[in-house]
Design goal:
Elements (H helix, E strand, L loop, with lengths): L8 H6 L7 H10 L36
Length: about 70
């Protein structure tokens, strides 16, 4: 049986995930001073995941391209 393309390790590392692990959520909350040492890990506040989109660069015509 073959593995689905979305489940491969190569493809999984490239994509942005919309769900963070508990450790990642704690790190983001600590950076924003919304979680302190000793607070309960149950009922943590939500953490927004921002997606990064890259704009395509415009082609610049050079002297060689004007033939």
């Amino acid at each position: 049986m073959t593995i689905d393309k979305s489940l491969r390790i190569r493809a999984g590392a490239i994509r942005n995930r919309n769900v963070l692990t508990r450790a990642e959520r704690l790190a983001k909350l600590q950076d924003a001073d919304r979680w302190k040492e000793g607070d309960s890990v149950l009922g943590m506040p939500k953490v927004r995941v921002q997606k990064i989109s890259l704009k395509k660069k415009k082609k610049v015509k050079g002297k060689d391209d004007e033939k």
